[in-house]
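[Automated response] Your request has been received and processed.

Submitted sequence:
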Amino acid sequence: MAGASGPMRDFLTRHREGLLLSCLLAASLLIISQQVEDRTGMTYLKRWAITLMAPFQSGASQVTGVFSGIWHDYFYLFDVRENNHKLRSEVNRLRSEVQILKEELYRVGNLARYSRYQEKTGLQGIAARVIGESPDPWTRLIIINRGRDDGIATSMPVTTPEGLVGRVVETSPSSSVVRLIVDRSSRVPVLVSRSRARAILEGENSGTCQMKYLDRTEDVQEGDIVITSGLAGVYPRGIEVGTISQVLKENYGLYQYAKLLPKAPIARLEDVLVLTGSNTGEDAE
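Generated structure:
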């Protein structure tokens, strides 16, 4: 450091007068530029300061603008995200309401259909909704949301506008058990609408039934419509049960047999009509 300061001291000593004159000249220029104004009324010192600071101010403005833009975009995207979340929630809510309304419209339409069915047939009944079914594969039972408190009693027939469903076999205050016509223990006296041939309809625990005790001399054909005969005092006469899908007739024996497809949608029942205006009693079961 000592070696470096020696030459500098010599330089200042030799050029002291020149340096002093230069400092006095620079000070004079500063004083003059601070006092002298240009044609716009701005002093030269102020204009030089602005010129020198302009690049730094421009850079600072750009940096500030970038950060300001990022900050603004962050809050904008945050608002967009919040609005999207609210919109999705609103859409889901509206979808749920639409689905509920669709179900209500279907329910109202179904009840109107049952009302027309009762007016057409003169049958009296109570509409009920299916709320359960037997998990046992060896039985075909459903549970409905009407019971003793609603006037439901055992042996009451159960139907739909399409066709016969079964009959009530058990009741509680608020629900009932219905044995379907396809249950193996179900027995329904029926007749063929076209030829008036009589038979007993038995379930097969599947989607079909079998017509038994059908005299082999009777005229029975595939496509014949089968209705309740009204015998045994349980099922009113004339309720459509189903259509014959196959006729089985041996070369011997007293009877022929026929397969029947139920007309009611047994596998997808939602609403049924429990007939309360018909006579009740024990049938062939």
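Summary generated for your ticket: The first helix runs from residue 2 to 14. The radius of gyration is 49 Å.
If you did not submit this request, please reply to this message.
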